[in-house]
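Review this chain:
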Amino acid sequence: MTPRARIIPVFVPQSGCSGTCVFCDQRLITGTGEKPVTSETVKRIIMRSASVSNAGYELAFYGGSFTAGPVSRQEELLGAALPFLRSGVLNGVRISTRPDAVDIETAERLGCFGVKTIEIGAQSMIDHVLAASGRGHVAGDTAAAARIVKDRGFDLILQMMTGLPGSSEELDFETARRVIDLGPAGVRIYPTVVFENTVLHEMQKSGTYKEHTLDAAVRVCAKIVPEFEKAGIKVIRTGINTLDDMALRRVAAGAYHPAFGELVRSRIMLRKAEEMLSGTACGSEIALGVSRFRISAMTGQNRENLKILSEEFSLKSIKVMPADVENDEILLL
């Protein structure tokens, strides 16, 4: 994967989508209205965000399915970035799309316009879950698209979701395993959130969909994230982006939290500490050494992790201290 670039985001919600997934309300999530994005829009956004003297940006088209729309529109938007690529203001472009909108011809066209990263919304690798979610493609489409993207030298990013209709913790884990097998450079993990006025909201109200609770999402993601990290796959994001007030008012149910990724990391640290303290004598005084970047995660929100460990192992005291360790490593001091 290329070094992390400064991203200039351009949101093109619902671009290319032939239908609507049961969970989807892209315009609400991105905060983008009905006004279409044009080449002039793209140029304005780039010029507002960067300058020739401040080069090294990456332009990212987010939302919808970029390559499922008309080729003329794709070329219009990508073409707007070409002068900035030639001048060095941009060092690449990334697009987001769906698995069944990637073929060899599409990949070759994207390469001609400076695209370096292709992000594909797999969401699940279980066919009946994809069908129940209204995705309109099967897991085989994701595998085929991933091969095309990697074979032609693009960086591949895959997205997956937990808690979709028809899924389970075991099936979410299986999706993660199959995504790992595809060998992406990075992955985004989105727990399902129910927004008002979506098909999924109606499914929940009718009882045909059971809410993916925050606790359930944290639990399953705390199992999935270490698997990606062990495979050398970067977890770019866990949880949907922080919502503005308007979008937040329309969250009807599901696993939304503005610091979801921190909750997941905290749960991972808790599980590691529980394994380490197994067999600890009652009344012990414990000091855990962690990276200074993991102190809050180890402590937990409102010191919840320390309370759980103290009660679980009947400790006299427990504290967290900075130590010269990497990532999620824990030392017993």
